[in-house]
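Section handout 9: paired folding examples.
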Amino acid sequence: MASPDDRRYLETHEWHRLEDGVVTIGVSRFAVEELTDITYVEVRKSEGTIKAGDAFGEIESVKATSELYCGVDGEVVAVNQEVLDNPALVNEDPYERGWLIKVELDDPSDYERLLAAAEYDRKHR
C-alpha cells in the first residue's frame, strides 16, 4: 500500500501533514506493520518549542520500543490524548485518528525538506 501523498515523511517513519501553518505528526503504516501491536505511546514534549530532529516521545509494541521524532521547528500546540489513552488507535488508523502531536510551523521550508511519499515508499518497501 502506498503512503498517502498529502504529507511528508522522515526516515524514522513519522509522517507530517501541513494544514494552515500547523503540522500534524504521526507514524506511518509501514512503521505500524513493523512494530505490530502497539501497546503504549508516550509524548514527553506536550508543549513549548520543538526543533527538527528532537525526540518528542516514544512508541512501544510487543516487539520493540522506538523514539518518535519531529521533522520541523515550531511550537507544540496539541497532543492526541485519545491515542495516549488508547494506543491501539495507531494500529487501527495511523493516518487520521492515530495522529500524535500538532506543531505550529516556524518555517515552511522545513516541511519541504521532508521526504515526499514516493521517495519514502521507495526507501521502505
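Moving on to protein 2 of 2.
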Amino acid sequence: MALCIDTETTVVDAISASMIDVFSMMVGEEVVATAQHPLASSAFSNATHENALTIVMGFSGDLVGSLCLCLPEKAALRWAELLIEHQSTEIDQVVVDAASELANIIVGGVKRRLSDYQVTMSLPSAIRAGESSLVFASNILPIQVGYRFCNCDLSIVVALVRAPA
C-alpha cells in the first residue's frame, strides 16, 4: 500500500524542508535534492555503499512506518567533521552519535511539519548497512529521496502508511 499522492507529497516536502533547514542551521552547508523515486519493497538501488551507516527511526500514530537516513561512509565522516570538528578515517562511535543526532533533528523537523497528523517517533537506531540492505513489509511502498552536500551523497528512505482506522 502506498500513501495517497497528497500525503506522499506532504511527507516528502516535509523531509526536504527539514533537510534544508538542518544542514543550513547546523553546519552552514546547502543540501540539494538529487532524485526521488518509489522503491519496490524487495528491489532497491544496485549501488551498495561499503561501510554505510543507516539511522532508522520509527513513526506511530496517524502515519506508521519508518524513516531511514542512509549515509555512505564519506557522508557520515563529513557530517561529523562539520558538526563537531571530529575527524576520523572510519565510522567510530562519535560518528554514529553525530549521525544519530542528525537523523533525530531531521525527523523532529518532519514531525513538526506534519502537525496535521498525530505522529510520534522512536529514538534513532544505527545499523551498518546502506539502503540496498533495507527491506520493508509488502504493504508499504518506500520512497527514496537522494541528497547531495559537500560532494557527498546521502538518501532518505521513507516507508510510511496511514494507520488503519
